[in-house]
Amino acid sequence: METILSRFLRYVSIETTSDEQSSTHPSSACQMDLLRMLYDELCALGYVANLDANLDANGYVTAIIPSNIEKQVPVIGFIAHVDTSPDASGKNIKPIVTEQYNGGDILLNHEKDIWLKPSAFPDLLQYKGQTIISSDGTTLLGADDKAGVASIMFAAEYLSEHPGLPHGEINIAFTTDEEIGCGVDLFNVKDFGADYAYTIDGGKIGELEYENFNAAAAHIVIQGVNVHPGYAKGTMINSQLVASEFLSLLPVNQRPETTEGREGFIHLTDSKGDVTQTELHFIIRDFDEQLFYEKQQLLQRIASQLEKKYGITIQVSIVKQYRNMIEQIKPCQFIVEIAKQAMLEVGIEPKIQPIRGGTDGARLSFMGLPCPNLFAGGHNFHSVYEFVPLQSMEKASETILGIIRLFAKK
User: What pLDDT does 49 receive?
Assistant: First the structure.
C-alpha cells in the first residue's frame, strides 16, 4: 500500500486555489488537475467490477464501494474538498518534512529566515517525536483539505487490499470550492446515495464537530456628496468619514479578534471608496439564531441612524450563507456516537466542539444528508505557517475505517 505521506505530498504539489471572483464550477481550472488524478486513482484501486467512479463536468469526483455483507446497513459517505484557500498562495508548494520533531524551532526557509516556532504556535509541542509536514513559509501547505483527501484515499486503498473486512456500501466524494462557500452548490445528494456522511475537514487530532456558525454576508453602500473642497462647507458629506463613523458604532467585543468559543462576531472583510461612495463588506457569524438575527438588525439600525443624521442614502444588503447544522444532526445523534466510539477504539480522545466557521457538511445536512465533521489533523489553516503531523493523518484514516466497521455491525 502507498503511504499516506506519499499521497499527501503528491496532492499538495498540485495547485488548487479556488477563485472567489469566478462564476464557473469549479472556480479555477487547476482544481480539475487533482480531481482527474483522484478519479484515475480510484479507478485503479482494483475493486470488483461494479465499482462506480465518476468525474462530472462540475468537478465532483464520486465513487461507490459496494457492500460485501448480506445484511442491510446504512450507506455512509466520506467527503473532502480539493481546493485551497485564496488567503495565501497555493502555487509551487515546497513541503518540509521534519521527522522525529524535537520540540524546537523548525527552519522553513533559510533564505528568508522563516521559522515555525512553538513560542508562536504552542500546539507544535503536542507532537514531539512525530513527523511534522509544513510548507517552506512562502505558501500555505494545503492540509486543508488535502490531509482529508489523503486519509480517505488511504482508507479506500486499505479496503481494496483487505477485501475480508466487512462493510456496507461506502460512498466517497471529493468536492471543489469549499473555501469560497460554494463547494456543494451543484452537488446532487440524491445521486450520491448516502444515508449519512462525514466530512474529513476538521483541524487537530480528535476534533468532532456537528455544530457550526449561522452565517451571512453584508454589503453596505454609503452614498456621500462630493463638491469642490474649496467650497465644501455645509455641503460636502465624505462617505469615507461616514463609513468610519459606522465602524465606530459597532461593538468592539463583537469582533473576531475579541471573541472565542460560542461567541459570534461581525467582521469587516473589505472596504473601498472615495468621497462620493464607500462600500463595506462584512461577514456575520453566531451559533445562536436570535443573536445572529440581532447582529443583522444592528447593521440596519446603524445605517438608518446615519442616514437620518446626514440626509444621505445607505444601502444594506444581507445574504444568508449557511445555517447551524445541529438541528439536522440531533435526530440522528447516533452517527456522532459512532464517530466517538471509532476514535476511542484507535486511542483518540474525542474533542467535541462547535466549528467557528462552516463546512460543506453544514450545507449538506440541510440538503438531506446529515454530515458531521471529523478531524483531518492540520493546524494554522489558511496560513503560510500551516502544518500537519503525519500521525494525525494516519489516525484520521484509522477513524474512517473504524466508522466503517461499526456501521457494518449496526
Answer: 44
Q: What confidence tens digit (pLDDT) does each residue in 366-380 have?
A: 999 999 999 999 999
* Helices then strands, each counted (H, E), the chain: 10, 17
CA 205 to CA 388: how far, in whole Å? 10
Q: Which residues pair with 314 in a beta bridge?
A: 222
On average, the pLDDT of the chain sits at: 95
H helices of 1-128, in order, are: 4-12, 31-43
Active site annotation includes 178? yes
Provide the greatest CA pair distance for the chain: 86
DSSP label of 5: H
Q: From residue 91, how far is each of 27, 97, 384 by CA, in Å?
A: 16, 18, 12
Give catalytic status of residue 286 as yes or no.
no
| Of 283, 293, 298, 297, nearest in space to 358 by CA | 283
**pTM of the shown model:** 0.87
**15, 83, 157, 286: the active-site residue:** 83
Integer distance in angstroms from the first to the last C-alpha of the chain?
A: 29
By three-state DSSP, how is residue 293 classified? helix
Q: Which of 19, 178, 179, 195 is catalytic?
A: 178
Collect all residues with Cβ–Cβ distance below 8 Å to 290 and sequence separation of at least 6.
none
